[in-house]
Design a protein that fits this description.
about 160 residues, mainly beta, eight-stranded antiparallel β-barrel, about 10% helix
Length: about 160
Amino acid sequence: MKQPPLKTVDHVDLNRYLGDWYVFANIPYSLENGKVGSLDHYALRPDGRMDNIYKFRRGSLDAPMEQWNGVAWVHNKETNAEWRVQFLWPFRVPYLIIDLDKDYQWSVIGYPSRKLAWVLSRKPVLDEATYQGILRRMEAQGYDSTLLQKVPQRVP
């Protein structure tokens, strides 16, 4: 059964969204399997696009930090909630901000097929009540929340 398109948030203030986001949970796929301590960093570039730097450790929080450098840009300029991300030319993928804390402390990134998702947090931890609320809202958009896995993070 075909599901309706994911609904993004009404508006994203890009300046508030920029910066570091810990990957608190995700629906893992081949390129992210085994990655821990992962973090996304977004920074505005002079050309209006954004640097999208994905930092991670392989297999252990004690492993050296590595990074992949990508680029992102706003696809829907009315809401700023729909982007495109490219880590490897010519592949571009949708980045849909489907849930966002009013204080920009956590965010949920969806993918049209619902086979991928990321729960991002400004801190390496997220309280369980907040996380359960996020999962309920994801389920309301057609996600199977049992597919999400928490990503191990180093907690100060």
